[in-house]
TrEMBL record, chain A:
Catalytic activity reported: (sulfur carrier)-H + L-cysteine = (sulfur carrier)-SH + L-alanine
Named cofactor requirement(s): pyridoxal 5'-phosphate
Protein family according to the UniProt entry: Belongs to the class-V pyridoxal-phosphate-dependent aminotransferase family. Csd subfamily.
Record-annotated Aminotransferase class V domain positions: 23-391
UniProt cross-references to CDD domains, sorted A to Z: SufS_like
GO biological process, any: cysteine metabolic process
Protein name: cysteine desulfurase
Entry-linked PROSITE patterns: AA_TRANSFER_CLASS_5
Organism of origin: Candidatus Nomurabacteria bacterium GW2011_GWB1_40_7
SUPFAM superfamilies (alphabetical): PLP-dependent transferases
Enzyme class: transferase
UniProtKB/TrEMBL annotation, chain B:
Residue stretches making up the Thioredoxin-like fold domain: 168-308
UniProt-recorded Gene Ontology molecular function terms: isomerase activity
Record bears the keyword Cell division: no
Name listed for the protein in its UniProt record: Protein-disulfide isomerase-like protein
Alphabetic keyword roster: Isomerase, Membrane, Transmembrane, Transmembrane helix
Pfam families reported for this sequence: Thioredoxin_4
Membrane-traversing stretches: 73-90
Superkingdom of origin: Bacteria
Length: 402, 313
């Protein structure tokens, strides 16, 4: 079981305000950062703010060492076969764009995505459709939002890539990644997993999943903003042609020619966000001290309470499966004909409770269902039952007056 | 409707604050979409409603419920009130510009631009001749049936006429006097001056002025008059200084005194006061510009507006 008071002490915003800490229920958008992450980044800026991999002075060597360490930590965190399978990016979106633009897709190639994809895993493929004529096919989900493997099987023939979200930011449903990958691999089809929402809450083992490509962001897993990771199997990464090239991606260059460095360097063009990378490594280290089962149990306990209370309010409809076990730490709800921005604004103004309202970058799903928007509560390891109760008490007040 | 209200309010606040500027932009987008017959999809109206309700709900759930229920009607009421108050404010600004008071010509109610009512202060002609703000019905102050032919005048025949009734001892007359001189100089208006002894014993100065005018002509009188409004008040009010003053202008002290103290002057001055009383004036300075009475020392622009016929109402 998680010791939330001990955890909260690591987060300045939750511990320094003498009981007036905000109730932060928007971790699916952005997690809070523990002091350890901030200190690691500050340490870089204060003590060795130099370049990695280029300069041969002591400061440069230290940055190179720290970046390498961060890569090793991340590789271990997701159980990659080696650290070279880890490519640092700015975020998940950049990872997906890297794949979309490096895979060498041709006109007529089919990419399968689910009907609940974040814009980051929809727009790059639609853009390729418009640019080079690939075909994007949508795998319809079940009525309750769970993944429909039959629909995948029906559509998979002839596909080049299955690119799906692991845990949905819309309803918290975690797709059966292992089964999806099995089906795809049986058909010799590559699989990409968008792990932005799963990596902070679940143990990801890329070898066990046998996933070909995977991407996630640092800012949702207690890490700094503007950091992310793109994972790929070594043999596949070797075949990819980088879409961003330039500084620090080549072994040598002449006026006529150049030779790219091996992975991962050939994908990391230009000067990197070293402080961010070091902070991301620290975040992974911080998360590694917990058992992910404990995090999941903690979130489920809070989710079960909130779901139970929301169900008592007749007008409210929860997006996704009814059972909180199926929704990770996400409770996304709406009221027909009501703009849910109002709820988010009121909760914030009344009780300093931060939730997200809108279409959560899944406009396609909202438009297809003709739902205007929703309010989303997303939980994480630092949230408490008292916070869940405060949310429900204030929500009930709002419901009473509306 | 809330979007229009928000656009106006945040538009004004946005001049001073960047955060309100962002809200004004959102409000504009909302209003623009509505006027181009598209739904407002920014959620702005609901965000604003949420902000308002959340402030109320912490005090009274019942009141918050009522506000939520009648939000549209309340928005309309506030919009109409805002339009009303905007018109009222604009009227006040106009009044202040052309009359020197937000409330209208010679109205002495509170005015934010002139909180101490400086533009309406007069030396009262009633009781103790106290100085300050005196509210009277301006409509009664008139030049109708007042014979001004006996008073000193300049620029006779001009299309505009300015009549200045002031007192040498009145601070407010002394304040207005330079502006009137400037006006006359710039506009070449027909200018008639009358001394009304509203405060202290200033009758002797009026008498002396009359005598100087009679003995030395209008030009000599205007020079003395200018001096009496510019020189130290206590000095000119001291009768023993009159000789020195007259001497400084090379007037014959004996001749001036004889005429000033004679019965002709006394009768003349008495008649002049009687004529001035017909104006129903209640304090000095009272300035008539083309027949319109301005009581109290107004800013120069007020006189200029009056003579330029900028006053529409």
């Amino acid at each position: 079981m998680l010791n939330t008071s001990k955890i909260r002490a690591d987060f300045n915003i939750l511990s320094s305000r003498n009981g007036s800490a905000p109730v932060y229920l928007d971790s699916a958008c952005m997690s809070l950062k523990p002091n350890q992450v901030i200190e690691a980044m500050n340490d870089y800026y204060f003590n060795y703010p130099a370049c990695a991999g280029r300069s041969s002075h002591k400061l440069g060597d230290k940055v190179t060492k720290k970046v390498k360490e961060a890569r090793q930590i991340i590789a271990k965190f997701i159980n990659a076969r080696n650290e070279d399978e880890i490519i640092f990016t700015r975020n998940t979106t950049e990872g997906i764009n890297l794949l979309a633009n490096s895979l060498g897709l041709q006109k007529g190639d089919i990419v399968l995505i689910s009907d609940k994809e974040h814009n980051s895993n929809l727009i790059p493929w639609l853009q390729l459709r418009d640019k080079i004529g690939i075909t994007v096919k949508i795998i319809p989900s079940n009525e309750d939002g769970s993944f429909n493997l039959d629909n995948l099987s029906k559509l998979i023939t002839g596909a080049k890539l299955v690119s799906v979200v692991h845990t949905s930011n819309l309803d918290g449903v975690t797709n059966p990644a292992k089964k999806i990958i099995e089906i795809a691999h049986k058909n010799n089809i590559l699989v990409f997993l968008d792990a932005a929402q799963s990596i902070p809450h679940k143990k990801i083992d890329v070898q066990d999943l046998d996933v070909d490509f995977l991407a996630f962001s640092g800012h949702k897993m207690l890490g700094p903003t503007g950091t992310g990771v793109f994972y790929g199997k070594s043999e596949l990464l070797e075949k990819l042609s980088p879409f961003l090239v330039g500084g620090d991606t080549v072994e040598f260059s002449t006026y006529e020619n150049y030779k790219l460095l091996p992975v991962p360097e050939k994908f990391e063009a230009g000067l990197q966000d070293y402080a961010g990378i070091i902070g991301l490594g620290e975040a992974a280290k911080y998360l590694s001290q917990f058992n992910f089962k404990d995090i999941a149990e903690h979130e489920l306990r809070l989710n079960t309470y909130i779901t139970g209370e929301l169900k008592k309010i007749l007008q409210i409809k929860i997006i996704g499966p009814e059972d909180p076990k199926e929704r990770s730490g996400i409770i996304n709800f709406y009221i027909d004909g009501t703009d849910m921005h109002k709820f988010a604004v009121m909760l914030d103004e009344m009780a300093d409770i931060s939730i997200r309202s809108g279409q959560h970058c899944v406009h396609s799903w909202f438009n297809s269902k003709k739902i205007y928007n929703s309010a989303r509560v997303s939980l994480y390891l630092y949230n408490t039952m008292e916070e869940a109760e405060a949310f429900i008490a204030n929500l009930n007040k709002i419901i009473k007056i509306l | 409707m809330p979007c229009i209200l928000a656009l106006i309010i945040f538009g004004i606040l946005g001049i001073f604050s960047a955060s309100h500027r962002a809200l004004a932009k959102e409000a504009f987008s909302c209003v623009f979409r509505r006027i181009t017959l598209r739904p407002c999809n920014t959620g702005f109206a609901d965000k604003i409603k949420g902000k308002i309700l959340s402030k109320i709900i912490t005090r009274s759930e019942f009141f918050a419920k009522m506000v939520n229920k009648h939000y549209e009607i309340l928005s309309w009421i506030f919009f109409i009130l805002m339009l009303g108050s905007t018109v009222w404010v604009m009227r006040g600004v106009y009044n202040f510009y052309v009359f020197g008071s937000c409330n209208g010509l010679n109205e002495s109610g509170f005015c934010a631009f002139d909180p101490s009512g400086e533009n309406n202060k007069v030396t009262s002609l009633e009781g103790d001749n106290s100085c300050g703000i005196t509210q009277k019905i301006e409509e009664n102050v008139t030049l109708e049936d007042v014979d001004l032919s006996g008073f000193p005048a300049q620029n006779i025949g001009s299309k505009d006429t300015v009549v200045f009734i002031g007192c040498y001892a009145c601070d407010y007359s002394r304040k207005a006097y330079p502006d009137i001189q400037k006006l006359i100089k710039n506009k070449k208006a027909n200018y008639i001056f009358a001394h009304y002894p509203a405060k202290g014993d200033t009758m002797f100065l009026g008498d002396a002025g009359y005598a100087v005018r009679k003995l030395y002509g209008d030009e000599a009188f205007w020079k003395l008059n200018d001096y009496l409004f510019i020189a130290d008040k206590n000095y000119i009010l001291d009768k023993s200084n009159l000789g020195t003053i007259l001497n400084s202008f090379n007037f014959d002290i004996k001749k001036v005194n004889e005429l000033a103290n004679g019965s002709e002057t006394r009768i003349m001055m008495k008649n002049q006061i009687k004529e001035l009383d017909k104006t129903n004036m209640y304090g000095t300075p009272t300035i008539f510009i083309n027949g319109k009475a301005f009581v109290g020392p107004k800013p120069y622009r007020v006189y200029r507006s009056a003579i330029n016929k900028f006053i529409f109402f």
